[in-house]
Amino acid sequence: MNRLRWIIMLLIGVIIGSCNQPDDDDSITTPYELNIPKGLPSMELFIPADNPMTVEGVALGRKLFYDPLLSGDNTQSCSSCHRQEQGFGDPRQFSQGIDGSIGNRNANALINLGWNQFGLFWDGRAATLQDLVFEPIRNPIEMNTTWPEVEAKLNASDEYLSLFDQAYNADRVDSVLVTKAISQFLRTLISGNSKFDKWYNQQSIQLSESETRGFVLFNGEGADCFHCHGLGGLITDNKFHNNGLDVTFQDGGRYLVTENAADLGKFRTPTLRNIEITAPYMHDGRFFTLEEVIDHYSEHILQSPTLDPLMKLVGNGGAQLTQQEKQDLLAFLKTFTDEEFLSNPDLSDPNP
After folding, report:
1. pLDDT per position as a tens digit, 127-167
2. Is 116 helix (H, G, I), strand (E, B) or coil?
3. Rounded distance between C-alpha atoms, residue 345 and residue 69, angstroms
4. Are 317 and 301 in contact (CB under 8 A)?
5. Do the beta carbons of residue 244 and residue 301 sit within 8 Å?
6. Element (H, E) at 291
7. How far, in Å, CA of 194 to CA of 233, rounded?
8. 3-state SS record for 128-159
9. CB atoms near residue 288 (< 10 Å)
């Protein structure tokens, strides 16, 4: 009797498993080869073993990224606040949810996120790309829905059922597969073919005299940018710093994740790639121009208990740049603009 019961339980387990799990034996997906420009590191080590890049997975993730069906009232997609022409950022200081709710941080530009290993969002609360995708859909001031609602809508679509079957050999859609697919697409948002790259990494063009002077300032103690925005490819250290914006903090930043007082007022360093078109700047979008940002680091750095030691010029308020130096630095920052990335049709909305 016990043996019969064991056999029945085993059969039930097999049936349930076959209904919910992808069947590796049936996999016919096509490996997706990322195009990594010279100067950027390999991404191979950052791709999870349970979600390898495939042509079918990237195409599905791209479709989902642009589909408003993932929001509570079918009006807002991921791309509503992450626009390709803005470096997959939002030109508004704070993004607006489906019911008009306003957030309190500027939307991060989605550029080269596949290499991030220190945490995503301004405060690093998402450990992985999948964690990042899980949040906005169920956030009441953003897409304001629930994962069961999203799953129901996707499972009611013959087109999506077919696409998930092709990408993951799954006959039912669940939240994990949705986040896996969008994560695959996010890994393809690679920017590394700017004027700077063509000069620094490819030696195919020259910078202007002003841009060259700006490079010297950027990469030396003159403007002191390179400590957090090193030119190793990503142009960010992806770590958390208090860069002297405030004396007291309305937004605790990284502290809200770690509850460590030493993290008060710290936020993740954003990449400077495409910085020319990803305004407004800082976690709260307080600066609307790059000139304002440069002025901050030149004259307005504020002392506070958690100010980063790298802000060593705080005693003078900052780097004290001349107007010419500011213009040169601005000219160099604009060399990070990657027009190919901003208009790449492979990253645009595939939905009719």
Report:
1. 999 999 999 999 999 999 999 999 999 999 999 999 999 99
2. coil
3. 22
4. yes
5. yes
6. helix 290-299
7. 11
8. CHHHHHHHHHHCCCCCCCCHHHHHHHHHCCHH
9. 13
